Amino acid sequence: MTNFIHQRKRELILALLIALLIGLIGVRAPIFLTLKSMDNLVTDMSILLMLALAQMLVIVTRGIDLSIASTLALTGMMVALLNHHHPDIPVLVLLGISIVLGAALGLINGVLIGVFRLPPIVVTLGTMSVYRGLTFVFSGGAWVSSNDLSKSFIEFPLSRFGGVTALVWLALLSLIVAAWVVKYTRFGRELFAIGNHPSAARLVGIRIPARLIGVYTLSGMMAGLCGYLWVARYAVAFTEIAYGFELNVIAACVIGGVSIAGGAGTVVGVVLGSLFLGVINNALPIIQVSPFWQSAITGTVILVAVLVNARGDKRGGKQILPLHFRSASAKG
């Protein structure tokens, strides 16, 4: 129990902070604690959570995917245009197309970073501009509004199954898959090993280029899926979709304890980081905080999280997969 509390100290503190925040906001605005408000909160944070889970896998390799929002915008615009011109195409087919298209865009990042060994921040900064520009090229700068989209296309994300929206179910599925990848797959463990010590990872035989290609392709797949969900959720597609949203995604990871230096991070932390941002983004308008202050408050929270992470790294150093190493030692 003591070890659990020590290992999960950060997550426990963040969870308590979120509970305290929700309580304080509820005192100021009781409507925030209603079931409808909580339902909106969970639905609104679903896309952020899905993207943050994919971003976490990238960051633990000492990488970053700045193109994730532009990939979302491009795939969202493409499926919106496809639906506009061919409204008979089933939604599930469009979902598949958005995932494949996103994977292709992520694969480009992965090849440039894994095979040509280019810096992730430079590669994804470049593709961020390219993908955003292609969104403008394919759309001609025009909007695709709700009148241009089919009813089934718009309704799917907010369709309810068992009282919960499809968006939330997809976020839960992504959460389960991410937790399984990190804890039970060789692929997940090798991502942490690469981020913790790339040279050692190479010496023990980890195929770093293949792993990097895989993780950036996964990030693209998730962004592609969220591209459709975003456009359908808000019933509009335009060139500025999710502009700057990559910073929110990275912030959710950092607040949740994912180390920008790589090699450390948990799925639970990312969930809490996303929930924390979701609470702030949903609560501030309810308590009538100015949009300008909302940005300032969110930015301050991110800075504090980075500061806490930096101090944590200095005190304890990076530690990855402690349970696996301990298990191996015990067996030996």
Structure characterization notes:
The structure is a single chain. The chain contains 15 helices and two strands. Helix content is 75%, strand content 1%. Strand 1 and strand 2 form a beta hairpin. Helix 12 packs across helix 13. The protein is mainly α and 332 residues long. The longest helix has 27 residues. A two-stranded antiparallel ribbon has the order 1-2.
Keywords:
mainly alpha, 2 strands, disordered C terminus, transmembrane, Autoinducer 2 import system permease protein LsrC
Strand order of the largest sheet: 1-2
Order of helices and strands: HHHHHHHEEHHHHHHHH
Principal-axis shape:
globular
* Structure classification: mainly alpha
- Specify the oligomeric state: single chain
Distance between the termini: 25 Å
Kindly estimate the percentage of residues that lie in beta strands according to DSSP. under 5%
Number of strands: 2
Biggest sheet features: 2 strands, antiparallel
User: What radius of gyration results from the CA coordinates?
Assistant: 20 Å
- Which regions are unreliable across 5 or more consecutive residues at pLDDT < 50? 316-332
Count of separate DSSP helical elements: 15
Blueprint of the fold:
Elements: H1 2-7, H2 9-28, H3 35-59, H4 68-85, H5 91-114, H6 120-139, H7 151-155, E1 160-161, E2 164-165, H8 166-184, H9 186-196, H10 198-203, H11 208-234, H12 245-255, H13 267-286, H14 291-316, H15 322-331
Antiparallel strand pairs: 1-2
Helix pairs in contact: 2-13, 3-8, 3-11, 3-12, 3-13, 4-5, 4-6, 4-11, 5-6, 5-11, 8-9, 9-11, 12-13, 12-14
